[in-house]
Recover the amino acids of this structure.
């Protein structure tokens, strides 16, 4: 006869195996619009193209903000402590491409996207592309941004 204790051990072992297997699959932590930014390559007439990561804010047609790539933990200061002087931004180097995931509550598409620099270390953008949170559409913008960075041949 099988004891109740051995049955519980088998059930517990099965639950541990299922939990372990479940952790192998990525889980979605909510919808995200992905903004890809390519930075110009230093050389010839362009220098200092890389710099700090931009803040990216998503807006609807009424210019209501509904998504961003801002690290909320930076703005959450423990009780009794002063806020930090500088945000913990990363950087993007000359000639590189970087994807920025923008958190949002649902899968709606932004009508306006604002790129701004958290400090005075701007980047020279070669192109920007966006993939909406629903995954159905993607758009890209090219332009005369390089000319503003001092690239003579743009």
């Amino acid at each position: 006869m099988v004891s109740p204790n051995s049955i519980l051990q088998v059930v517990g072992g099965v639950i541990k195996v299922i939990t372990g297997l479940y952790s192998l699959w990525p889980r979605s932590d909510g919808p995200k619009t992905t903004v890809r930014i390519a930075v110009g390559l230093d050389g010839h007439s362009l220098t200092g193209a890389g710099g700090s990561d931009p803040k990216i804010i998503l807006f609807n047609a009424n210019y209501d903000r509904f998504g961003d790539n801002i690290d909320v933990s930076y703005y959450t200061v423990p009780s009794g402590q002063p806020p930090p002087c500088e945000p913990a931004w990363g950087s993007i180097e000359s000639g590189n491409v970087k994807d920025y995931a923008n958190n949002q509550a649902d899968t709606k598409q932004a009508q306006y996207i604002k790129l701004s620099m958290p400090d005075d270390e701007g980047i020279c953008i070669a192109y920007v592309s966006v993939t909406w949170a629903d995954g159905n559409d993607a758009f890209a913008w090219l332009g005369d941004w390089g000319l503003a960075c001092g690239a003579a041949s743009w």
